[in-house]
Amino acid sequence: MTDPGDLLHLMQGIVNVRRFRPDPLPEGLLEELLTAFAQAPSMANTQSWEVIHVTDPAVKSALVQATLDPILTPGSNGAQGWLADAPLILAPVMEGKRARARFGPRGAVFGQQDVAMAVQNLRLAAWAHGVASAWVREVDDEALRAVLGLPWYVEPAGLLALGYPADDAILETPPKLSPEEFLHRERWADAPADAPERPVQPAKHPPAGPDPSDDLALVMDILARRRSIRAFRDRPLPDDWMVPLLRAATLAPTSGNMQAWEFVVVEDPDVREQLVAATFSGYHAGPGNPQRWISHAPGLIALCVDTKRTGARYGQEGKRYWALVDVAIAAENMVIAATAMGLGTCLVGGLRPDEVVRALGLPGHVRPFALLAVGYPAENPPPRPRLPIVDITHRDRYDRPYFTEEV
């Protein structure tokens, strides 16, 4: 068991150090520090953190230009030049999609809190090895975003400098409030005894909805009208045609509400042709038999799976299975919405994934799931035969039919 006094002494060493020796960090130490980083708790285990490792002098110099003075004065870029001399700079960031998927807008706040706890873990582990650190949060977010090439959904969380402290580095522990100064018992110390409670707003009951039987009839009618359409009229789609489909997709249920979907609306003719070339028909996945009809679809959406979002919460099973299930449900929602709009669709799963990844520029944790071709149908194929419900329904055990006659 760790001596609490030793742990407290270690915590007292977490101070911002701004002068470092040029010595590089030992081989393998960074992996240990990042392992400590990853052990931090996170809301619903979403682990919405990412870390960018920087040692290149040119990138360091650009990072310095993204720093501000201690009071965040606009235009004070480059105020913390000492940062360029740190042997290693880590840029922790918060991946907003993972953070917001489960908790909505508040998830971004939770995500930044999770990153802060992970950074503290890393700094404790570093100091245990005699490695000093400084967490620089006085930054120009947009300038930092540009230097690191962050996409719009990733939020910077400052810069973390690491290295062995120079002999003349200041390691003095700053003054801290004593527990007696910040501890309140039962209630806020200055609150009057008769302080009114926060008023509770009465619950608002929504008006009664339509007859559920009407909803069921509508849904069943749309499901019965759906067909896989591979021939489209030469008629342009309305502006923002994709919005109702995407809204329908995002209403699908997902594992842990992690919403592991990503959608690429493909408009560039060159990209469309690359995707068509990556498709195949039948059982042969090799080149030479693409589904050329896709080229004539006015609308094309690539449905992709972000394995990291669901994987963060459910591990390998989430990456391998649950994320795919979630995107499949979203795809069905899109198809139903399109049918209700009078559009025809066809989901194309015959893809060579690596070629689709290259065509769409997908990062390593995002994998293609299917292509959705959309347009006004130029054909009306008959319904496909369906197995009768009596043949596919069981009671309690597989060897016991549920129905004895067709329903």
Task: Give the strand content.
Answer: 15-25%
Query: Roughly what percent helix?
Result: 25-40%
Give the beta-strand count.
Answer: 11
Average pLDDT reading: 89
Q: Order of helices and strands, N to C?
A: HHEHEHHEHEEHHHEHEHEHEHEE
The structure class reads: alpha+beta
Supply the number of helical segments: 13
Shape: elongated
Q: Flag low-confidence runs.
A: none
Distance between the termini: 66 Å
C-alpha-based Rg, rounded: 28 Å
Q: Mind summarizing the main beta sheet?
A: 5 strands, antiparallel
In short:
With 407 residues, the protein is an alpha+beta fold.
Question: Can you give a write-up of this model?
Answer:
It is a single chain. It is built from 13 helices and 11 strands. The mean pLDDT is 89. The protein is elongated. Helix 9 packs across helix 11. The protein is of the alpha+beta class and 407 residues long. The strands form 3 sheets. Strands 1, 2, 3, 4 and 5 form a 5-stranded antiparallel sheet that branches. The longest helix is centred in the C-terminal third of the chain and has 34 residues, at 307-340. A hairpin with a 1-residue loop joins strand 10 and strand 11 (397-401). 37% of the residues lie in helices and 15% in strands.
